[in-house]
Amino acid sequence: MSPALHDRLVGEVSHLPHAIAVCLMHTVSASALEVASTGFRDTTRIAAASSSIWQPIFSSNRKVMLDVLAASSRTWEFKKLLQGRDPKKLAWS
Predict the structure, then answer these.
(1) For residue 59, what are the domain limits?
(2) Domain count of the fold of the chain
């Protein structure tokens, strides 16, 4: 496996989930955290890692992260599906 391919794959399965978990933690309110349960905990567990570890990873893999984030934009289509008010379309996988 080439270093470039390795960086891309690790960006997808490690760096992207961490970035999303951190963003999620910075999105929810303190009130919402009071009612959060195990699903939220499981989803955001990796956000507890030290930013002193992740900042250099994100910085050194900036291009890969930008590419992976762009490729992940399909998941944000969920908002459009909700706005469309067609419940059948929410069953996408």
Answers:
(1) 3-91
(2) 1
